[in-house]
Amino acid sequence: MKFKTFVINMKKNPDRLAFMSDELGKLGIPFVVQEGIDGQTHDFSDVYDEKFAIEKNGAPLTAGEKGCALSHRTIWQTIVSEKLDCALILEDDVELAPTFKTALDEALDDRESGNTDWEYLAFNYPSPGIKYIRLWLFMLSEKLAKEQSPRKYLALPWYMLKFVGMAAMSIFEGARNAFYKRTDRNAALLFFRPVYLAGCYLITAEGARKLLALSEKLAYTADRIQNVARVKSSLHIRYHVPLLAWQRRDRFQSNMYSDKRYDFKRYG
Questions:
Q1: What pTM value is reported for the model?
Q2: Are 9 and 20 in contact (CB under 8 A)?
Q3: CATH number of the domain at 3-128+184-247, out of 3.40.47.10, 3.40.50.720, 3.90.550.10, 3.50.50.60?
Q4: Could you tell me the strand order of the sheet in which 120-122 lies?
Q5: CB 96 within 8 A of CB 244
Q6: DSSP alpha helix (H) spans, 38-196
Q7: C-alpha distances in angstroms, 267 versus 88, 183, 236?
Q8: Where are the domains of the chain?
Q9: How far is CA 162 from CA 134, 156, 168, 176, 192, in A?
Q10: Residue among 134, 253, 268, 110 nearest 186 (CA)
């Protein structure tokens, strides 16, 4: 299998690169650096149309979101142009479990042998279980706080009903994650809801082509586009269980957001 590992890093962040070099070096995973695109200084005029982004995404992308999305898209283009079978893509703030290399090798072997058909396998996503319920409630409170219309209160029964479903799924997913962790098993499984973050994932050439088709003009964040592709392009997404990668937003401030988000010590 023709395979590469990419780490997205901006030159102005050598501390992040040193962190990732240590994480991957401990596991014996060689990598190449993909220079990250600084959304504050890059000219996006040829790849970004704000009206198009609002139409497709519901809101304009921030400078950081544009830079992150274009950085990921550049790697997807490399995967296709270099005819790679698969690639591991990491952002530069990801802590990896000691068992990550074993799980990575198993995932690649299963994919090559045809035992699984994923095109996008996420290792990094918000922690299932109680942590996700807390995160969902926080994001809902932010959304309601920003909404000025009194009609938002009419939607509260719908949000309450949705919360019951989200909570049930999260508790199941948390128990499943704990089971696989305790038994030292690895699996590529479905989640029955949209799952976000793009800090660490495997992607095949076909998966890269599907994401490229949706990003000719930037409209979706790197954290969200895989869920759009699942619906619009039949992208085969799976999530590695147990959770083995966490974005260290307690250590490194997000390059995408200037505001203080709801951060766990290990995000994901």
A1: 0.88
A2: yes
A3: 3.90.550.10
A4: 32-35, 3-9, 86-91, 200-204, 120-122, 237-241, 187-189
A5: yes
A6: 50-57, 63-81, 100-113, 130-146, 156-182
A7: 19, 23, 24
A8: 3-128+184-247
A9: 14, 10, 10, 21, 13
A10: 110
What tokens appear for 230 in the block? 């699942």
The string of DSSP letters for 156-177 reads HHHHHHHHHHHHHHHHHHHHHH
List the pLDDT tens digit at each of the 268 positions of the chain. 899 999 999 999 999 999 999 999 999 999 999 999 999 999 999 999 999 999 988 889 999 999 999 999 999 999 999 999 999 999 999 999 999 999 999 999 999 998 899 999 999 998 888 887 887 787 777 777 766 666 666 777 878 888 888 889 889 999 999 999 999 999 999 988 888 899 999 999 999 999 999 999 999 999 999 999 999 999 999 999 999 999 997 788 655 443 344 344 444 4
